[in-house]
């Protein structure tokens, strides 16, 4: 079994920054793509950014130039640096990872979510 634990959410004012972290633990052989999704009230969950094991990144248009995703393969951790936050960034942010476990089974996992609230 694999667990994803997020941290770093909170309440900030518009224009400020936050850094989210997500650490994967458990029976891990390797991790393919890791990513961050978000879900605002009344809206569908959407991709914010993801990063491959080789470091290739992909961003939603709404966050390009403001958010940066990175990862530490040694620590099985993915980060999301969020700058110039806007009220429309308010959402629950979820970590996602595509994991090969030690039994060489590939599964997709979600974290429990962390709230990000941006006040105007």
Plain-language structure description:
With 120 residues, the chain is mainly β. It is 0% helix and 62% strand. It has no helices and eleven strands. The strands form two sheets. Strands 2, 4, 5, 6, 9, 10 and 11 form a seven-stranded mixed β-sheet that branches. The chain has a four-stranded antiparallel β-sheet with strand order 1-3-8-7, with no helix packed on it. The radius of gyration is 14 Å and the shape is elongated.
Assign an overall shape. Answer: elongated
Biggest beta sheet attributes: 7 strands, mixed
Query: What is the number of E strands?
Result: 11
Order of helices and strands: EEEEEEEEEEE
Helix fraction, binned, reads under 10%
**Cα distance spanning the termini:** 41 Å
Number of H- or I-type helical stretches: 0
Brief rundown of the structure:
The protein has no helices and eleven strands. The protein has 120 residues and is mainly β. Strands 2, 4, 5, 6, 9, 10 and 11 form a seven-stranded mixed β-sheet that branches. It has a four-stranded antiparallel β-sheet with strand order 1-3-8-7, with no helix packed on it.
Secondary structure layout plus pairing:
Blueprint: E1 2-7, E2 10-13, E3 18-26, E4 28-39, E5 46-51, E6 57-59, E7 67-72, E8 77-82, E9 91-101, E10 106-110, E11 114-119
Parallel strand pairs: 2-11
Antiparallel strand pairs: 1-3, 3-8, 4-5, 4-9, 5-6, 7-8, 9-10, 9-11
């Amino acid at each position: 079994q694999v667990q994803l634990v997020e941290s770093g959410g909170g309440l900030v004012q518009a224009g400020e920054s936050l850094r989210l972290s997500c650490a994967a633990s458990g029976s891990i052989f390797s991790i393919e793509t890791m990513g961050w999704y978000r879900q605002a009230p009344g809206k569908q969950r959407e991709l914010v950014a993801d990063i491959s094991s080789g470091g290739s990144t992909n961003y939603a248009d709404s966050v390009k130039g403001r958010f940066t995703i990175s990862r530490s393969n040694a620590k099985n951790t993915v980060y999301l640096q969020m700058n110039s936050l806007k009220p429309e960034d308010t959402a629950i942010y979820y970590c996602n990872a595509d994991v090969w476990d030690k039994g060489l089974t590939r599964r997709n996992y979600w974290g429990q979510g962390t709230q990000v609230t941006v006040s105007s």
